[in-house]
């Protein structure tokens, strides 16, 4: 849990508040024993403005009431939407997860929207590390300790696909492991092929020109005009990630499929070319029963489109989205589909692929700066969401809380039980 200490109650938005350093205390009791005494489970006298505490030793499947205190004053929720919809924020009650039945099999970690390159302007000329670099670096260090079978960075790897951002992303990821063995990427809209004219200082022209036939949707692709101002695919120069191509890999009896939903012609929404959809179908049909998770940067379901800022035009286009759901519905093996892009943590159901959990994971390189741990068992899976616990990431949390005039956290946090949950379903084929 985390909170920030301020001198007084205040509006959640618009007027950035100056935090005050205090000590940190957490008290808990069982939620179904309202008369029992609160037990202090954490005390740290270090004066801090942002407090982040992990409490161990709780029983699985129990509800606890908690109070976080700063200099003896109880922290109260401030964001409006989470105070209404999130029981943990609203009632001060959280319920620990129960692992699914069966044997533990493996762990996969999902990051998305790492946006390497963000925050560079804040430290220009200081020699300090931009926050998007160190949030990823610190996340990967914690993730390495979990020894997952795979890490997937599900799009918006970079801030804008600039060569220098890709170089940093490559360096940080190579310090973690090997591409397509330990870590896998999908592209996001920010990693799409760019034209040199989109940002003359980015040096996109140092990259490989995107073949005109791949730049479809652009009227002049076959003309001399395209030759004069083509798309450059810098991403594929730094990573093994051809534009509009899927990849598939197996970790034990778990199949991971990464789809490229980036659209060179669209800075926000996504698409999938017919060739990629056909390849996706062939891969699924080659082993329809194999337990499978799919990854697209852009969310796609009707529910996701109805509830996201920007609605359908911001997500995967309807034609591609419908086809993806149809293909997933046609095979029994697909059980989860991860997306990023909205920067929010939210679970949804498909309206065609009704047997698939569609999960948006929060952003990893911008508020709330989290990574998502998915543990697989023969009887289901659990998802938990974590913020790296290092001093430099902690130091970013107050300014990020107030980014976008303080409104951003409202849209990204949603409910605790959409970021941390257990799904019980038969995954015995994973064994
Ligand atoms: Fe993003
Ligand atoms: Fe995105």
From TrEMBL:
UniProt keyword annotation of Signal present: yes
Coiled coil: none
GO molecular function, one term: acid phosphatase activity
Sorted UniProt keywords: Signal
InterPro entries membership: Calcineurin-like_PHP, Metallo-depent_PP-like, Purple_acid_Pase-like_N, STPP_CPPED1
Signal peptide: none
Record-annotated membrane-spanning stretches: none
Domain Calcineurin-like phosphoesterase: 107-344
Protein name: Calcineurin-like phosphoesterase domain-containing protein
Organism: Corynebacterium aquatimens
